[in-house]
Amino acid sequence: MALFDEEPKKKARAHEIGQDLSLLSVGELNDRIVVLRDEIARLEAELAAKGATKSAAEALFRR
Question: Which of 21, 24, 34, 44 could form a disulfide with 28 if both were Cys (CB 3.0 to 4.6 A apart)?
């Protein structure tokens, strides 16, 4: 019976804040840096978009 084999496996996180890094290779550390830099860029883009929306709303309600 393969009851447990049919359950979806949880996706491993690319990086977890505070995770022990001593077991990772140099390549794995570089890969994580790339992932984190991409995520920072994504967060900054969203922050800029929200700032533009906020500025537009403030300009509309000042009139």
Answer: 24
